[in-house]
Amino acid sequence: MKVLVAVASRHGSTRDIGEVIARELRATGLTVDVRDAKHVDTVQGYDAVVLGSAVYIGNWLAEAKQFGERHRDELLKLPVWVFSSGPLGLGKHQPENDPQALVASLGDIPIRDHKVFVGKLDPSDLGLGEKLIVKMVRAPYGDFRNWVEIRRWARGIASQLSTEPAH
Ligand SMILES: Cc1cc2nc3c(=O)[nH]c(=O)nc-3n(C[C@H](O)[C@H](O)[C@H](O)COP(=O)(O)O)c2cc1C
């Protein structure tokens, strides 16, 4: 069974999450490709898709939304999981986004699960404009990604796929 992990990442931390999900899926015997969402021409040949996007100013990145639009017809027929990576900090996550609004662009594509993972913010990655926004919303700098939670979510996907017929 072949799985596509498609990621939309501006500074790389969402891509790292995609890579860890892929590693966990491969450990269960699945064949997994990790690709930038914007470079995926087709999802044909895959039996399942995991789509992840970083969140910027309350929105998924355009390439994740475009991925959903571009591959809508195929995605309607495949099991699809999605994740968002954004909130920062260990306590009350800030800024807070409505998970349903984040994936609204996927429309009627059925989603098995949408997980919001805590992200990473490194000042050395950011330009002046981004630093100003970060200051305004008082988001904390740091790497808050919870690898245990990410791996657990990936294992849940693998376990569901183990009962699915290949496409
Ligand atoms: C300018 C800016 C705006 C952001 N806006 C949000 C936001 O609205 N909601 C959120 O949860 N995270 C927000 N974040 C945090 C990012 O989503 C987080 O740093 C994420 O891990 C970045 O992923 P990437 O490295 O894949 O681009 C913002 C970060 C920056 C720099």
Detailed description of the structure:
The chain has helices at about 15-25, 60-70, 70-75, 100, 130-135, 145-160; strands spanning about 1-10, 30-35, 50-55, 60, 80-85, 115, 120, 140-145. The protein is of the alpha/beta class and about 170 residues long. The protein has a single domain (about 1-160), classed as Rossmann fold, CATH 3.40.50.360. The strands form two sheets. Strands 1, 2, 3, 4, 5 and 6 form a six-stranded mixed beta sheet that branches. Strands 7-8 form a two-stranded antiparallel sheet. Helix 1 packs across helix 6 (about 145-160). The chain starts with a strand and ends in a 6-residue tail after the last helix. Bound molecules: flavin mononucleotide (FMN). Flavin mononucleotide binds near residues 14 and 121.
Present the secondary structure layout.
Layout: E1 2-8, H1 13-26, E2 31-36, E3 48-56, E4 59-60, H2 62-70, H3 72-75, E5 80-85, H4 99-102, E6 113-117, E7 120-121, H5 128-137, E8 142-143, H6 147-161
Parallel strand pairs: 1-2, 1-3, 3-5, 5-6
Antiparallel strand pairs: 3-4, 7-8
Helix pairs in contact: 1-6
Bound molecules: flavin mononucleotide (FMN).
